[in-house]
Amino acid sequence: MYCLMCGKYLSEDSFSDFFRKKDVLCRQCRGEWKLIRKKGVFESFPAYFLYEYNDAFSKCLIQFKECGDEALKSVFLYPEKEQLRRRFAGRTLLLLPSSEKNLQKRGFSHLWEMFEILKLPMMEPFEKTVHLDQKTLGRRGRARMEEAIRLRPGIRLPKKAVLADDVITTGATMRGALSCLGPGADVRIFACARVPERTRSSNP
Ligand SMILES: [Zn+2]
Predict the structure, then answer these.
(1) Do residue 54 and residue 2 come from a single domain?
(2) What is the mean pLDDT of the chain?
């Protein structure tokens, strides 16, 4: 078995690896990720974030998502899958939407592949609504427009759900999805990674 990022043969790692959790990355590659397992609140809903978004995470996500390297799908949740499955047992994962254009370009739903490993029920109930003329909008307007989200027609949402995304940055997409749910929804928020606040404020 080889590290999915650098290709190093995994059993070449030292003896102490015997006591580590099984992983699909070598110790060095995984060591560059910042595991935070952070519990918090997002718009009054319980939220959970696994990693802090950093260069190593970003590099891997880009290779998976933008370069279409599907082999990386298990990298994100693998070491935490049992823990996450217990945490969200009895809930359906509602995956946040990608734009149709990105989805077609990539040829696969990257969130579906990323979260499949948890073996929980999953749905993609949302779609992005982009029908405005981009040229007439400024940069801020475009950013807001891209977050316009609605439920796909005919969707019936489960009673207990988790809104799941790869990275939470400003939270605009997540807020858009929350606004599609009825009042009193029993929902939790999960993002594989969270952009730290200092980065968010310096990079609007
Ligand atoms: Zn590696």
Answers:
(1) no
(2) 86
pLDDT at 61: 95
Rounded Cα distance between 60 and 121, Å, is 25
**pTM for the structure as a whole:** 0.85
Q: How far is the CA of 102 from the centre of ligand 1 (A)?
A: 28
194: nearest Cα among 6, 28, 36: 36
pLDDT in tens, 105-147: 777 889 999 999 999 999 999 998 865 544 555 655 555 554 5
CATH number at residue 89: 3.40.50
Identify the domain containing residue 11 by its residue range.
1-31
Residue for token pair 């945490």: 87
Q: How far is CA 182 from CA 21, 93, 178, 191, in A?
A: 39, 16, 8, 21
Distance from Cα 199 to the centre of ligand 1, integer Å: 26
